[in-house]
Amino acid sequence: NTWPISLVSYVYIRKDLSHITNPVSRTLLKAFANALFDPDYIGLCERYGHIPVPEEVKTISMAGLAELNWDASEDQEWTFEKSTMPGWGQGDYVISDKRKSFTLYEADRLADDMEPLIEDLRQLKVEMAAAKVSGLSSGSAVVNMAWGVGALVGGVMLSLY
Length: 161
Known about the structure:
The chain is mainly alpha-helical. 54% of the residues lie in helices and 4% in strands. It has helices at residues 23-35, 39-42, 44-47, 55-67, 102-133, 140-160, and strands at residues 79-81, 94-96. Strands 1-2 form a two-stranded parallel sheet. The chain is elongated, with a radius of gyration of 29 Å. The chain starts with 22 loop residues before the first helix and ends with a helix.
């Protein structure tokens, strides 16, 4: 007893692309526009319960893209890595689903940076426990170690942000 939900997406691209001064940006726009009609990507529509673009619309759209002023002197075309391209897949101007975002890279790097700090913290805990066992729990050694642990934890927290 409901109407079907309909979603139509439009991408408007000016015929004259001279306002995009960076040639890399123009060729990236071209790659994006052509990818919209690539069977590998259009095929994802059905996976999410959508109806792909009808062939007539695809034909009209591709004809419109052919009329755009891409500036043929721009020889740096973008490619899509659909299967592993050893040596080329990680190159410039390659769009690969295997690439990770910088955020994931940075999180991995920070985790690696944390390992020595965590080991230092473990060592300080062992030293504090040894000091307690040897009866120095009320002495200045424990206080100094506590300050050291606090400074280490503070340094760890700062490195995360």
